[in-house]
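In the current project phase, the collection of sequences with tokenised folds has grown. A representative record is quoted in full directly below:
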Amino acid sequence: MKRLLHVSDLHFGTPSVPEQVEALEGIIAREPFAAIVISGDLSQRSRTREFTRARAFIAYARQHAPLLVVPGNHDVAWWTAPVGIGSTGAMYTRYRKFVSEELEPTLSLPGITLVGLNSSHGIQPYTLTTRPRDLSVVGALRPAQWSKARNAFAAAPAGDLKVLVFHHNLLRGKRSNRWGLASRALGVEQAARTGADLVLCGHDHEDRIEQVSAAGRRFVVSTANTLSDRVRGGRESSLNVIETTDREVRVAPWQWVGAVRTFVPQDPWCFPR
């Protein structure tokens, strides 16, 4: 059995809840994980002090397990290149300095291949929608990015669990009613065509765990909640713990319980592979 820890939207800065971060660090120290995945939004406003705290957390996590992290829309200084005018590279300067030079990392472990994609492009012509509130919020994955994931999974060892990671929610939020990607429902089909068995994402500040079918195959989507004080719908913060075998994928939300100051496992969702 392989275990993955999936967290998202820590938002170091004003929204961060220090006791939740401390509890998360305790879980990382106690629990065995094959890998830890952070699906973006380590910062709140892409500020140096926020990324400094994020860097310390990442260093701590890496002491205990291999880690894969991708940027979120809050990690991107979109104002340096609105609609492509300006320095696109500058959008990621602080992320690259404090988190990782690599925006689309891959991680190969025994029995698992993880591929990260950067869905956070700031405000570009291909991220624009008819909703003003979507500016700098909606993400995108370009054809070359989907191809990159598809090729990486095609080259993975036979039998590997294929895990695709990006920031924006692949499925429409049940509370927000918003798609995370500009391609909307088409993103589900595009993700299916990569060959992924499991998609890890966040962004919507709402946990959602579901198996979906598209393009003639099925895969599991783990949308992790935020670890901050900005949970949608007045719910508690949570993280996801994923356990996989050759036959099934189990995704259990661990929900914050203030009375005991830690995250408590809830009943898992179980899906056949």
About this structure: Residues 162 and 196 are 5 Å apart (CA to CA).
